[in-house]
Amino acid sequence: MMLTTLTTLTGLSLLPLAPGTATDSVAPFVQINSQSYAENNSIYALVKGKESDYQGSNHAFTFNEAAFGLRYHNVTLSYIYRYEWFLKHSPDALLLYGDSLNRTDMVPGKTYQVDLNVNHTIQQGIRLGWRMEPADNLAFYVAGSYLKATDLMEGQLHGQVRRSANDDISGQLNLDYVYGEDVLLDRIADKPTSRYGFSTDLGFDWQVNRHWFLSAFVQDAYGEIMWDRAPYTTAVANTATAETDENGYININPIASGFEGYKEYKQRLTPKYTGRLAYLFGDTALSASHFYGYGAQLTDLAVSHGWRWGSARLSYSLQSQAIGLAISHRYWSMQVVSDNLDYQQASQLSVQLSGQVPF
User: Fold this and answer.
1) Which residues touch 30 (CB under 8 Å, ≥6 apart)?
2) CA-to-CA distance for 180 and 170, rounded, in angstroms?
3) Would you say 138 and 157 are in contact if contact means Cβ atoms under 8 Å apart?
4) Is the confidence at residue 240, as pLDDT, over 90?
């Protein structure tokens, strides 16, 4: 890059291959990236199905990836393992979920508008990445991955549920989803087979001038998994069997009618966009970053400083009030972001680790 603040730029770059980290020999490396977010709610409680003070919200996701491989100059070849799921839901859907887990009564006279979209997959494969630098102040990154998947769930649940003033429960839900395991209606079905999958990643670093630096990265810019004989269910469920138990709690055992079978299915991977704009003065930088993915948006403001040995970055997330600390070196880096010291109470939690050993 064009300035002497190379360690500062290394900490600001969003690319998996940051500036100033290339080696002249083959270098084994590892990268671990774990990001989770549940808007206005505890990630742990939502994932584990625990009692909690659930708040109406719209988004939740987790993305976990580990990469192990070799790097030579600005080219990497790695084995990757990924676990990914996300939920898009109406506020009422999460409130109804919370009522169920907490065993609290639905609000009398309220109609709950249920709108839930889910996407989940577990993948592993091989990735080839390349950082190219056509000019001293400009670099591009491109990567391609070949994937096989071992788990599948994608679909929608829409409808409404109402509790009348007389405590009668009524409603209807429309279900349309594909899966590896039917967690809703307990259908016994054969597991689907992942035929193939692929994904592409794109990004760039651009030092506009001596003060401004711009970095952008799109993970899974385009990607998909092709499945053979994916089980599916399309059904309509009603609340005709709602009843109150001896403790006064309402239990709903929905009656469902519809279709089920197997089909070839194309599961699209969700693109994840991140951009960062930084203003540099000497070895210090002020930056703003924005993430968009799974329908969620996260913005953070940060201050960074570089030394000869590396750089440090302190950030603040506007949506979750999470605090982040990142430390970067030419051959290793680490970052932790959280809005709560107790991970079971955190709504945003991110951990990133990387390291390489040049021979």
Assistant:
1) 66, 67, 68, 353, 354, 355, 356
2) 30
3) no
4) no
